[in-house]
Specification:
Blueprint (H helix, E strand, L loop, with lengths): L1 E3 L7 E2 L2 E2 L8 E4 L2 E4 L1 H7 L15 E7 L2 E17 L5 E10 L20 E5 L8 E10 L2 E5 L15 E4 L5 E8 L14 E6 H10 L19 H13 L3 H15 L12 H8 L5 H12 L7 H11 L9 H17 L3 H9 L19 H9 L16 H12 L2 H18 L3 H16 L5 E9 L8 E10 L4 E4 L7 E2 H19 L5 E5 L26 H4 L1 E5 L1 H4 L5 H10 L7 E3 L6 H9 L7 E4 L3 H13 L4 E5 L23 H14 L8 E5 L24
Parallel strand pairs: 15-19, 19-20, 21-22, 22-23
Antiparallel strand pairs: 1-6, 2-3, 4-5, 5-8, 6-7, 7-8, 9-10, 9-12, 10-11, 11-14, 12-13, 13-14, 15-16, 16-17, 16-18, 23-24
Helix pairs in contact: 3-5, 3-7, 4-6, 6-7, 6-12, 8-12, 9-11, 11-12, 11-13, 18-19
Length: 718
């Protein structure tokens, strides 16, 4: 809204009283507004279409933001006088005003877009009130101006709209300025125009300003490409304005923030703008956390502003903002380095329990963490995504704070208290509910109070996609505890892996479990699909933890057995059949499939009748027949199946004799491992290559993992 500044008592100047509203304007920059020249003339009490540049500098510009008018004084800097045409329409009629002080933070400079026929546009009255808008449509272009026609409903463009922006109703952009309403004189008839106005389009405004030498005011980008506000910056600015609208408060927090980040502050005690603070929050990784630390402290003991929680939520969407403030990070690194120096295994051990289903940084996948690796590891943990919002709408406990609680639970008393105090302070700043943090602390205390659960076996799931190179496979790993709980082992690379790499990963997972529990891990279950039953997994090189010793096959260091969920999960009675066969395993003789019984129908009949409770089957014969018989055994719930994958015919059956298939069943995996050791050391003497399926009575429940793939990629190679 434009008007002439008050000078003593109001008095008439021409047809307008000093202090009355003359028209509207559009913000070009923080210190410049654009309006019509005739609006300025009118505000100064001059004949509206006078062409001379006004000499007065006493113009009021009033910003209506959040219902609170804010006044500033302006002076004319660019003058494009009205130029009459015989039709009564005029050209030019532009004026740029320079503000004595910057526009309010909430007022944003306009983004411009070319005007075009058919556009739906909206104009606002000079007071900016919600009900003071008028909708109209761009109808016709005529030598640099555009005519607007409004429907006979709602408000119409009226005196006071002149100089104001015409907003596109479908883009957040301004397409021109309202100039005037075209009055109809005399009595109205049904054939007369009653809601026609005209406007200057952005194309004409840009050309006029360039001709007047105001090059710096014209956007350098194409007018057809309006600049979109960065949603994150817009959100940060909005919340900062609500929190730091008071200049004195903003200055206080800004100086604290600069001191923490190591930046200097202006010597002139000037007030930083909200936009300057947004720039800092989006470029300095610890600025947002450090500022919210200061803001949270200022409201301690009082009601926490909701804008602070929204500011933190915006930070979680940022690619720049870190979780911790400068002070929080410095304190934590110091204490965690002390813990790593005194007990290198504690932090990785706590991480694997606290973040059981979270991909861990590489430094936490080993059995120990050195002090020099602490800072980088904590930085990686800061970037781990939070969980879902809690039922009350608050944020969940971040992954880093979970680790701190579990580390504190096993740390010495002084470290424990320091870490818990730190955790409470950070949780309070982040708006995490006390009950949520208390639950994590209770879990940590319970974990620290019980003996570490022994890892009894390592489970590897091997799969192959059609797109994988030959000889490479996908791999997922779990450490299975004595109570049956599977703990995923997160791998740094997604795969596919070479067979030797998979053997190395399995060995590393087993050795890490041994280090933590102090007990040997010798059982490795390999989950495969139907085609994977033919893989020589036990021959894959697992390397050796001692560099100068030769690497050994996986099946020599570990009791490697296969399992095939793809087959067993298709039988709804599989669990019942498995339990029944295990219940009689001590008394039932193994079923040996030799040349006389190597028929699919005959084997299936025997497993369903005379050998319905047989717990072990030994398969002989050539590979094609053996493959079909193996799948029948697994589908019928046979838990233990032994065969020689190198056998070419039934004549090779004796090659398995050294394994003693008829010996005590529960010692069979160890006998197979020992035999594989003999094969490795003397392959010329031993011709068998034993494969073993061993499915325990207790089912293994692994967490599902949803993975979306290209349709072609998801097809297995056959």
């Amino acid at each position: 809204m434009l008007r002439r500044a008050f000078e003593g008592d109001d008095k008439a100047v021409g047809e307008k009283a000093i202090g009355d509203e003359a028209g509207a304007a559009v913000l070009l920059s923080r210190r410049q507004v654009l309006t019509c020249a005739h609006v300025v003339n009118d505000a100064l009490g001059i004949r509206p279409l006078a062409v001379d540049r006004p000499a007065a500098d006493g113009l009021d510009v009033v910003f209506h933001t959040d219902g609170a008018p804010r006044r500033t004084v302006a002076r004319v800097t660019v003058w494009v006088p009205p130029r009459r045409r015989p039709s009564g329409i005029w050209h030019g009629d532009l004026c740029v005003l320079e503000l004595a002080e910057p526009a309010p933070e909430q007022a944003r400079p306009a983004v411009w877009l070319d005007m075009a026929e058919g556009q739906a546009v909206r104009a606002w009255g000079p007071d900016g009130k919600a009900g003071g808008f008028a909708d109209t449509e761009v109808k016709l272009a005529d030598e640099g101006i555009y005519y607007l026609d409004g429907a006979l409903s709602g408000a119409a463009i009226a005196p006071g709209f002149s100089g104001g922006p015409l907003w596109s109703r479908h883009d957040p952009a301004v397409v021109g300025l309202v100039v005037a309403h075209r009055d109809t004189r005399g009595a109205l008839t049904g054939q007369q125009v009653v809601r026609r106005s005209w406007a200057l389009p952005w194309q004409t405004i840009r050309a006029e300003l360039l001709t007047a030498g105001a090059v710096d005011l014209v956007e350098p980008r194409p007018a057809s490409e309006p600049v979109r506000e960065d949603p994150l910056r817009e959100t940060l600015g909005h919340e900062l304005w609500e929190l730091l609208g008071d200049p004195a408060t903003r200055t206080d927090h800004a100086r604290r923030l600069a001191a923490q980040l190591g930046y200097g502050t202006p010597a002139d005690e000037s007030v930083p703008s909200v936009e300057e603070m947004v720039d800092l929050l989006t470029t300095s990784e610890r600025a947002l956390a450090t500022l919210t630390e200061s803001l949270a402290s200022a409201h301690r003991g009082g009601r926490r502003p909701r804008a602070l929680d929204r500011l933190l939520a915006a930070g979680r969407l940022s690619d720049t903002a870190r979780l911790l403030s400068v002070g929080e990070q410095r304190t934590l690194v110091h204490r965690m380095r002390q813990i790593a120096a005194s007990d290198p295994a504690l932090i990785p051990r706590a991480a694997r329990e606290a973040l059981r289903y979270t991909p861990l940084p590489a430094a936490l996948r080993g059995s120990s963490l050195a002090p020099e690796g602490v800072e980088g590891t904590l930085v990686e943990l800061e970037s781990l995504p939070d969980g879902d919002l809690l039922p009350d709408g608050g944020p969940s406990v971040p992954a880093l704070l979970k680790l701190i609680e579990f580390t504190a639970a096993e740390a010495s008393a002084p470290c424990r208290e320091d870490l818990r105090t730190w955790s409470e302070r950070v949780a309070r700043r982040l708006g995490v509910h006390e009950a949520a943090l208390a639950q994590r602390r209770t879990d940590a205390v319970a974990w620290a109070a019980r003996r570490p659960a022994t890892v009894t076996r390592v489970v590897a799931q091997i799969s192959t996609l059609a797109s994988d190179p030959p000889g490479r496979h996908r791999c997922r790993l779990w450490q299975v505890r004595a109570d049956g709980t599977p703990v995923p082992v997160f791998l740094e690379e997604p795969g596919p892996f070479t067979t030797d790499r998979i053997g190395w990963l399995i060995r590393e997972a087993a050795e890490r479990a041994e280090t933590e529990s102090g007990q040997e891990v010798r059982d490795v279950d390999v989950l495969v699909d139907r085609e994977g039953l033919q893989l020589p997994v036990d021959e894959w090189d697992a390397g050796n933890a001692i560099e100068w010793l030769p690497g050994e096959p996986l099946g020599v260091g570990y009791r490697v057995a296969l399992r095939c969920p793809e087959i067993t999960e298709h039988n709804p009675k599989h669990a019942h059949m498995l339990r029944a066969r295990w219940s009689d395993v001590d008394t039932a003789e193994p079923l040996v499939v030799d040349e006389e019984t190597a028929d699919a129908k005959q084997l299936y009949s025997r497993l369903r009748t005379s050998h319905e409770r047989a717990g072990q089957v030994v398969l002989h014969g050539p590979a094609p027949m053996r493959k079909a018989l193996l799948e029948i055994c697994l589908a019928c719930g046979v838990p233990v199946v032994l065969w020689d994958r190198a056998a070419r015919s039934h004549a090779d059956a004796h090659h398995l004799d050294e394994v003693t298939p008829h010996g005590p069943l529960f010692r069979l995996p160890e006998r197979v491992r020992t035999f594989r050791g003999k094969i490795w050391s003397d392959p010329e003497r031993h011709h068998a290559r034993p494969s073993l399926v061993w499915e325990p009575e207790d089912p293994l429940s692994l967490p599902s993992q949803h993975r979306l793939t290209d349709p072609a990629e998801g097809v297995r190679a056959r």
